[in-house]
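Q: Start with the shorter request: fold the first protein.
A: Done. Sequence, then structure:
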Amino acid sequence: MVCEKDPALKNRCHIRYMHLFSTIKYKVSISVSNALGHNATAITFDEFTIVKPDPPENVVARPVPSNPRRLEVTWQTPSTWPDPESFPLKFFLRYRPLILDQWQHVELSDGTAHTITDAYAGKEYIIQVAAKDNEIGTWSDWSVAAHATPWTEEPRHLTTEAQAPETTTSTTSSLAPPPTTKICDPGELGSGGGPSAPFLISVPVTVALAAAATTANSLLI
């Protein structure tokens, strides 16, 4: 068999029309030569041991509403895997909060989704997924990392209206009213008994004039 050189990659070639599921081991010989000399190397392998899928694609992690310790993770089978129905893959998921260095792992026999149920509330997580043929081969490299933070309850906005306390202010004035000047009433000076005629301060003057007139008449006689 001839390994055809890959036009896109310098150090890669492809072998077409291999006998799949063969129990015969394969031997690959690579030789190189230049002006300084020639060299060759060979390896032998079993096709079942070298099956290695590409990493899963489109890994997405989302918070689960009203669940502060859950994250929902989904992904897709690598597009380079030829027939997922005939050659199913199993998956290996790892995750950790950014505040810790230790990973937690979950192996899944099928499916392309998983719900993390033991996340730390409010902490950002990093999640990666690897894939492997269900029967043979080795695990793929880790996928591109997805990041997510579990759901957290939004703070409630409380509206408080401040009400001024009802206060009653009683003011007592100690100032006496200004004095009122008035002419005395005879009723107020007497022994009481009802209203009387006003008291005239001209009475003594009238009495004096009457006495003077009597004296003048006696002198004329």
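Q: Next, the second protein, separately.
A: Sequence, then structure:
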Amino acid sequence: MKNIFLTSILLIFFGNAFAQEFNKKTFHLSGNLEADSKLVSKLDFNQINNSVYLPEENKKSPFLAGLFSLLVPGAGEIYTEEYIKAAVFLALEAAVVTTAIIYDKKGNDQTEMFENFADKNWSVVKYAEWLMQYKAELGLPEDCNITINPDESLPPWERVNWEELNHCESRFSHKLPPHGNQQYYELIGKYPQYSPGWPNFSGESDYHIVPQIYLDYSAMRGKANDYYNVASKAVIGIYINHFLSGIDAVWSAISYNKDLALNIRIQNVNLAADVEWIPTLNIKYSF
């Protein structure tokens, strides 16, 4: 009974396909095995193309699938009708992009905060005066002399001759870049030689005795760097998500295009008083 039911379904399913192959001759199957067997037995089976493949227009291009997902993760999966995986890749993309944007902004805000803090508290004038006061103890050049504008209404970085300042720093491993430079804000909170420019410095010639405000500023800079590190890792995550989604989309397209070959053969069986035609089905997947 199960075989008869399955055979009837298959005959109904492939009826139209047979009709198109046999000289465009149209016929309809009833679903009754005995009646349909007689109808099919009248056909010229030498003309049968016994393989039915997926129509070319229904196949998915692995190249396009990969390209779509490289551009927008999940797009290739939508194209190949892998909707759950598409949702996963799209959700990951939204998460890493949002993380990158949020933490980059946090880093920018924190950077603006510590730069304003430095401009308000660290004085290159105090640092220059310290260099000249202890130039002998520090082993600085004898001709170390830094011109300082006495106009205190100007910001400290506009009162100092920077070329002379850098000349006096020749003994040190670092020279202070001009104000506003990223390295300017980094050095004054990273190397103890710049601690005399901070308030409450009391180390005299020993610049390794740093005030608490120097440590606080260093922590502020470190927090900004932490934010930027998270943002950078999120950006890397974006590239990885695009790459993995592209690879998955290519594989999904290949899987979608597995040729389903339905090899149909009509076999005649001689009975005592009649001939029965038995349709058989062979299903083969090719990769």
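Q: Describe the second briefly.
A: The mean pLDDT is 82. Residues 62-109+240-255 form one domain.
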